[in-house]
Amino acid sequence: MGYPAKLVNRQKLAKQLKGLKLSTVCQEARCPNIGECWGGGPETPSTATIMLMGDSCTRGCRFCSVKTAKRPPPLDPDEPKNTAIAISSWGVDYIVLTSVDRDDLPDGGASHIALTVEHLKRECPHILVECLVPDFAGNIQSIQRVANSGLEVFAHNIETVERLTSFVRDPRAKYNQSLRVLEFAKEENPLLVTKSSIMLGLGEEDEEIEQAMKDLRLVGVEALTLGQYIQPTKRHMAVKNWITPQKFDEWKIKGDQMGFLYTASGPLVRSSYRA
């Protein structure tokens, strides 16, 4: 598919999302792959990661360009249905649902996410659904609600190594809590594929990356993505170092050796890229 056709696909998708009052992490997080994913190709459907529960997050991680607010607007009760309508018209086989953090809600928005999955499965029984979810402040009932909603892939990102977690992520995000979220989901529904992601280039050491990978395997995580951190704006934390493509290849080999069923590792790899 040439550039003009890709641009038309991208513009069409953006218009439809706006009309249905939906947000995408592709736009809000300024993903570098937006043109490729949204443009699609003759044998590759256009792909977008839908961001649920609005475009304002209750947390303020130092790497993320999504807007923050202590009290975001109320949830749109039509969003689960509108999301299913939009996705069913795209004809895709795989969709990723992610969300902002909503610490202002009793269940962190778990019911809203689960309801979206259930609507999707009614509209498109064949579709494979991945949910990239927040930590729900460690609430087991919230994790269970999403884990039993009918999705195939339960994803939650540890984002960085343990030592840098308090510097990189919002203070409410804890390294071990994120590991427990992934572990609880797998225990609740053993048929799920669990997935996580690590950004590189934040000043982490190789030994710390390897330990984080081991920690993920210990809680049963089967899919891992590793990508280069890219500073979204001057207001966000700076890149400490740039990882070479060869080094990313080495991490992929290491992931495969450690038993991950799927390891994607590269400078522009993001957790939901070409999922």
TrEMBL record:
Highest taxon in the source lineage: Eukaryota
Catalytic activity: [[Fe-S] cluster scaffold protein carrying a second [4Fe-4S](2+) cluster] + N(6)-octanoyl-L-lysyl-[protein] + 2 oxidized [2Fe-2S]-[ferredoxin] + 2 S-adenosyl-L-methionine + 4 H(+) = [[Fe-S] cluster scaffold protein] + N(6)-[(R)-dihydrolipoyl]-L-lysyl-[protein] + 4 Fe(3+) + 2 hydrogen sulfide + 2 5'-deoxyadenosine + 2 L-methionine + 2 reduced [2Fe-2S]-[ferredoxin]
Pathway(s): Protein modification; protein lipoylation via endogenous pathway; protein N(6)-(lipoyl)lysine from octanoyl-[acyl-carrier-protein]: step 2/2
PROSITE patterns noted in UniProt: RADICAL_SAM (PS51918)
Family annotation (Pfam families): Radical_SAM
Annotated localization: Mitochondrion
Gene Ontology cellular-component annotations: mitochondrion
Enzyme kind, highest EC tier: transferase
Listed name of the protein: Lipoyl synthase, mitochondrial
Organism: Meloidogyne javanica
